[in-house]
Amino acid sequence: MEGKKLVVPGEKIIEGMDYLPGDGTYRSGPEIRAAILGLAHTRDRLVKVIPLSGRYMPKKDDPVIGIVTEVRYSNWTLDINSPYEAIMMIGEATDRFIDLKKDKLTNYFEVGDAVICKITGIDDAMGVMVTAKGPGLRKLTDGRLVTVQPSKIPRIIGKNASMIKMIKEYTGSKMFVGQNGRIWISGGNEELVLKVIRKIETEAHTSGLTDAVKKILESEGNGKEA
Is the separation of the CB atoms in 119 and 130 below 8 Å? Predict the structure, then answer.
């Protein structure tokens, strides 16, 4: 396989045990097939599919922002902007012990709450498990949420987080970027953050984007912080 070609879910990309399935693919016997709609390509024997658009495909250890959709007896269901829902068990919600005989789960997370969490596991049936225990993981109580195409998240973060650092410095805003395409913005110049995020999302494929974003931030921002 040379260059890139458009593939649909289930389509055979390449055959041979010498090749390794990467993002957006899976192995079926000796074949590597597409798990998502996108552009397939291979590099150093690793086969990947770059999504053209669409919803997020969960991966273990990804930081995401979930929205609570259901509170059950001993867990919460979260929408993670994916075809697959996520489950957070009571032991993953807080470091505190939750006594189901005395505590209400809605005292911790209610339907509609936005939660920064991390994917801890995915079973063979695509059952996704998440945790809200760990540095930076928590319920969001302020700011705003922005949703972009998940495929554009790497460009918004930038190499070694360079793009996101620059946006924070010029706007004074706090930000968290979930791999599932949800971004939390709080404080500072939120409108400017939103403006540059939309520009990056729209022009992610273009060259010179970093310089263009920096120019906007310099002209409309509050000045770079020391």
Answer: yes
β-strand pairing of 31-34 with 12-15? antiparallel
pTM: 0.76
**CATH code of the region 144-220:** 3.30.1370.10
Tens of pLDDT along 63-80? 999 999 999 989 999 999
**Superfamily per CATH, domain 63-140:** Nucleic acid-binding proteins (2.40.50.140)
Which has the closest alpha carbon to 50: 91, 22, 18, 85? 22
> How large is the C-alpha radius of gyration of the chain?
20
How far apart, in whole angstroms, are the C-alpha atoms of residue 102 and residue 88?
A: 19
The tens digit of pLDDT for each residue in 81-94 reads: 988 899 999 999 99
Rounded Cα distance between 4 and 25, Å, is 14
